[in-house]
C-alpha cells in the first residue's frame, strides 16, 4: 500500500511517500480502507506530537470503511463507514482501535468526517469534561481561526455559550461571524484582556482556550473571570514559558489545565469517546455543527497541504483525500 511517513530534521518535519505491507488488525482493532485524513498542526511541529529519530507513520485521524475486524470486536461490521483517531492515517489502509471508531453520520462526506475525530474530541475534553462550560457563559478562544479554534467556536455555540475570538486576520474573523462568533478581536499580540472585559461588562471570560501558547498566557489569565478556567492546548508561537500571576490565581480561584493525549495510554484516550458521542456527535449528525473544511488536497499533494498549514493560510481543517 502507499503510505506517508515523517521525521524531524532539525527544526522541520519532513514527509516521505513510500510503500509498506497492508497492516493486519490485532485483537480489539479494525482495518480501514482510508478515504480521507485530517491534518493537525501538532504533528508538524518538532517536539509537538512527534519526537526526533527515524521515520514514523504519518497521520493521526481519518475516515474510511471497515474491511477487516480483529478478534473480539463487537458492535462494528464490515463495510461500515467510521471516523476516528488512528496512527498512520495518511495511508491507503490503517489500523484503528475499535474503541475509537465512531460511526459516520449520514450527512457528512468522508472529507468532512476526517475533520472531526481528533479536534472535536480535544474540544469536548476542553469545553465539557474539564472546562465545564455552561450556557450563557463566555468563552475566549485565542487563534480562533485554527482547526481547534473553529471547532471550539462551533461546539460552544451548540452548548449555548457566547464566544470571543482573537485572530491576526480580519478576513477570517469576518467569515467566522456566520458560525456565531459573538465578539471578534483582531490581534496577534497579548493585548486583548481589556477588550474582553469591555465585551463582557467587566465579567471576564469564564473559560479560555489558549491555542497560541506562552506569548499570550499571562494575558489569558488577565482576561479570566472569577472562578475562570484556562485550557492550554497548543503553542504554535513556540513559546514554552510564561509568567503566572499567583495573586490572580489565588484571589480569583482560577483553574489552569492542559489538554493533550501525548502521555495518555490507549485506554485513557478511549475513555472520553462515549461521552463525546453522547454530548457532541448528535449536534454533528443533525447539522447544528458542520465541520469546516478549508481545503481538500489529493493524496500525492500532502507536501502542499503541509505548506498551507505552516503558512497559516487555512480557516478550519485541511484534509487529505486518499480514496474516491
Strand content is 25-35%
Give the full name of the CATH homologous superfamily of the largest domain. Medium-chain alcohol dehydrogenases, catalytic domain
Judged by helices, strands and strand pairing, the structural class is: alpha/beta
The largest β sheet comes out as: 7 strands, mixed
Number of helices: 11
What's the multimeric state?
single chain
**End-to-end distance, in Å?**
16 Å
CATH fold-level assignment of the largest domain: Quinone Oxidoreductase, Chain A, domain 1
Low-confidence stretches: none
**Number of structural domains:** 2
Radius of gyration: 19 Å
Average of pLDDT: 94
**Overall spatial form:** globular
Secondary-structure arrangement, i.e. CATH architecture of the largest domain: Alpha-Beta Complex
Order of helices and strands: EEEEEEEEHHEHEHEHEHEHEHHHEHE
What does this structure look like?
The protein is an alpha/beta fold and 324 residues long. It has two domains: 2-116 and 291-321, Medium-chain alcohol dehydrogenases, catalytic domain (Quinone Oxidoreductase, Chain A, domain 1, Alpha-Beta Complex), CATH 3.90.180; 120-258, Alpha-Beta Complex (Quinone Oxidoreductase, Chain A, domain 1). It has eleven helices and 16 strands. The protein has helices spanning 110-114, 117-130, 147-158, 170-176, 193-199, 217-223, 246-251, 266-271, 273-279, 281-285, 302-310, and strands at 2-9, 12-19, 29-38, 56-57, 61-69, 81-85, 93-97, 102-103, 138-142, 162-167, 183-186, 205-210, 224-232, 255-258, 293-298, 317-321. The strands form three sheets. Strands 3, 5, 6, 7, 8, 15 and 16 form a seven-stranded mixed β-sheet that branches. Strands 11-10-9-12-13-14 form a six-stranded parallel β-sheet, sandwiched between helices. Strands 2-1-4 form a three-stranded antiparallel β-sheet, with no helix packed on it. Helix 5 runs parallel beside helix 6 (217-223). The longest helix is centred in the middle third of the chain and has 14 residues, at 117-130. It is globular. The two termini are 16 Å apart. The mean pLDDT is 94.
Amino acid at each position: 500500500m502507499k503510505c506517508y511517513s515523517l521525521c524531524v530534521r532539525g527544526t522541520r518535519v519532513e514527509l516521505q511517500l513510500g510503500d509498506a505491507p497492508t497492516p493486519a488488525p490485532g485483537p480489539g482493532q479494525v482495518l480501514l480502507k482510508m478515504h480521507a485524513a485530517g491534518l493537525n498542526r501538532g504533528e508538524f511541529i518538532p517536539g509537538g506530537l512527534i519526537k526526533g529519530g527515524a521515520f514514523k507513520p504519518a497521520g493521526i485521524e481519518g475516515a474510511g470503511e471497515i474491511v477487516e475486524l480483529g478478534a473480539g470486536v463487537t458492535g462494528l461490521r464490515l463495510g461500515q463507514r467510521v471516523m476516528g483517531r488512528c496512527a498512520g492515517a495518511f495511508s491507503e489502509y490503517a489500523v484503528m482501535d475499535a474503541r475509537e471508531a465512531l460511526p459516520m453520520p449520514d450527512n457528512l462526506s468522508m472529507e468532512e468526517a476526517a475533520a472531526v475525530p481528533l479536534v472535536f474530541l480535544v474540544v469536548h475534553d476542553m469545553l465539557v469534561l474539564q472546562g465545564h462550560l455552561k450556557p450563557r457563559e463566555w468563552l475566549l478562544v485565542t487563534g480562533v481561526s485554527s482547526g481547534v479554534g473553529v471547532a471550539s467556536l462551533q461546539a460552544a455555540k451548540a452548548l449555548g455559550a457566547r464566544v470571543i475570538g482573537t485572530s491576526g486576520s480580519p478576513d477570517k474573523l469576518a467569515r467566522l461571524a456566520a458560525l456565531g462568533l459573538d465578539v471578534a478581536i483582531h490581534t496577534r499580540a497579548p493585548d486583548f484582556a481589556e477588550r474582553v472585559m469591555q465585551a463582557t461588562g467587566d465579567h471576564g471570560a469564564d473559560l479560555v482556550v489558549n491555542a497560541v501558547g506562552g506569548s499570550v498566557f499571562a494575558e489569558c489569565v488577565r482576561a479570566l473571570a472569577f472562578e475562570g478556567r484556562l485550557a492550554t492546548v497548543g503553542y504554535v508561537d513556540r513559546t514554552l514559558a510564561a509568567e503566572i500571576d499567583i495573586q490572580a490565581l489565588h484571589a480569583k480561584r482560577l483553574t489552569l489545565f492542559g489538554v493533550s493525549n501525548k502521555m495518555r495510554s490507549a485506554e485513557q484516550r478511549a475513555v472520553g469517546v462515549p461521552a463525546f458521542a453522547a454530548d457532541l456527535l448528535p449536534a454533528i449528525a443533525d447539522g447544528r455543527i458542520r465541520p469546516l473544511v478549508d481545503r481538500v488536497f489529493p493524496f500525492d499533494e500532502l507536501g502542499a497541504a503541509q505548506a498551507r498549514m505552516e503558512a497559516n493560510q487555512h480557516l478550519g481543517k485541511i484534509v487529505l483525500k486518499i480514496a474516491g
